[in-house]
């Protein structure tokens, strides 16, 4: 099973892309844990909340990572985003987050470019820093050494770009180019 994480700054179409990829490949997709968690809070989230989100993400990876069917599974975000947020907001990343990332759970990343308009959402905080976070996420992927592709465009074009990136990845993977 090919495990693909779709990451990127806020409001870059990650959830929509995950849904469309899952439909295209008749696969499962795992929703973003942070959104659901934060929406249920009565107060502002804390460092401990972000650590809880990270643990929930790891549980989701473990739950879905054991499956062998379907051929694909898409995750709407991953620990890179959580790691960056911990470092940015709290200037501290717990060891368990770095250790899990070092295990290289994902086979491939699709990183969504901030080339579509930002849309307000009560859970979003940094519409003016999307380029900053994009660069940080991309750097984190490079540190891991996991193959990835930048995904841009809007609507159907974004989906087609992602499908092409997956096709190229699979071709390279089969020929051991990575």
Explain the overall architecture.
It is a single chain. The chain is an alpha/beta fold. It has a single domain (2-174), classed as Rossmann fold, CATH 3.40.50. It is built from 7 helices and 5 strands, in the order βαβααβααβαβα. The protein has helices spanning 14-25, 33-40, 47-65, 79-90, 95-102, 130-144, 156-174; strands spanning 2-7, 28-30, 72-76, 108-112, 148-151. Strands 2-3-1-4-5 form a 5-stranded parallel β-sheet, sandwiched between helices. Helix 6 links the parallel strand 4 and strand 5 (148-151).
Shape category: globular
Order of helices and strands: EHEHHEHHEHEH
Task: Give the helix level as a range of percent.
Answer: 40-55%
Low-confidence segments, given as residue ranges, are none
CATH class: Alpha Beta
Give the tally of structural domains.
Answer: 1
Number of helices in the DSSP assignment = 7
- Total strands: the figure is 5
> What is the gyration radius calculated from CA atoms?
16 Å
Give the overall pLDDT as a whole number.
93
Query: Beta-strand percentage?
Result: 5-15%
Strand order of the largest sheet: 2-3-1-4-5
Q: Fill in the CATH topology.
A: Rossmann fold
Report the sheet with the most strands, covering strand number, pairing sense and barrel closure: 5 strands, parallel
Alpha-carbon distance between the two ends: 17 Å
Assign the structural class, choosing from mainly alpha, mainly beta, alpha/beta, alpha+beta, or little secondary structure.
alpha/beta
Going by CATH, the homologous superfamily would be P-loop containing nucleotide triphosphate hydrolases
CATH structural architecture: 3-Layer(aba) Sandwich
């Amino acid at each position: 099973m090919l495990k693909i994480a779709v990451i990127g700054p806020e409001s870059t179409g990650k959830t929509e892309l995950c849904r469309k990829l899952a439909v295209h490949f008749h696969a499962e997709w795992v929703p973003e844990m942070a959104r659901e968690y934060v929406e249920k809070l009565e107060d502002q989230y804390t460092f401990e909340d972000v650590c809880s989100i990270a643990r929930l993400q790891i549980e989701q990876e473990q739950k879905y990572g054991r499956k062998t069917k379907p051929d694909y599974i898409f995750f709407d975000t991953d620990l890179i985003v959580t790691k960056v947020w911990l470092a940015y907001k709290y200037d501290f990343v717990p060891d368990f987050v770095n250790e899990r990332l070092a295990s290289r759970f994902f086979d491939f990343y699709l990183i969504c470019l901030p080339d579509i308009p930002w849309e307000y959402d009560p859970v979003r905080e940094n519409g003016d820093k999307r380029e900053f976070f994009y660069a940080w996420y991309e750097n984190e992927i490079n540190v891991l050494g996991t193959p990835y592709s930048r995904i841009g465009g809007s609507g159907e074009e974004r989906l087609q770009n992602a499908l092409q990136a997956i096709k190229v990845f699979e071709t390279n993977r089969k020929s051991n180019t990575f």
